[in-house]
Amino acid sequence: MNWPVIKAVGLLVGSNVFMTFAWYAHLRDLKAKPWFIAALVSWGIAFFEYLLQVPANRIGSAALSLPQLKIIQEVITLSVFVPFALFYMKQPLKWDYLWAGLCMGGAVYFIFRK
Questions:
Q1: How many Cβ atoms sit within 10 Å of the Cβ of residue 76?
Q2: pLDDT per position as a tens digit, 51-96
């Protein structure tokens, strides 16, 4: 087991949950509020994202290259965003999510091949 990678991925998953809510939840929950209220709420949520993201990247950089760390983060972002879009934002399921996921799989392959 590569514990630094496992810890980094776990922290990045948590970080991305906060990030996704900070970036997009205001579109549903604060629609009637002024934009600056949404920005302040989003910044408050993003604070917790950074509490997870910064240590995740520091831990992950001990075992992964910077490009590998970035691609892992992007895969996690898509993996968190799709359920958020479907279940929280009530967006319809589209084939494009699958195609985007396959493209990310290709990115993972190319960045991790030796």
A1: 22
A2: 999 999 999 999 999 999 999 999 999 999 999 999 999 999 999 9
Three-state DSSP at 64 gives coil
Alpha helices by DSSP H, listed for 1-114, are 3-20, 26-29, 35-60, 66-83, 95-112
What is the distance, to the nearest Å, from the Cα of residue 1 to the centroid of all Cα atoms in its chain?
Answer: 23
Reduce the DSSP state of residue 11 to 3 states and report it: helix
103: left (phi over 0), alpha (psi -120 to 50) or beta: alpha
Q: Which is nearest to 70 in space by CA: 104, 19, 33, 26?
A: 104
Measured CA distances, 76 to 8, 62, 65, 108 (Å)? 11, 19, 17, 11
Whole-model pTM: value is 0.90
3-state secondary structure of 26: helix
| Burial (CB count within 10 angstroms: exposed 0-12, middle 13-18, buried 19+), residue 110 | exposed
Report whether 95 contacts 33 (CB < 8 A).
Answer: no
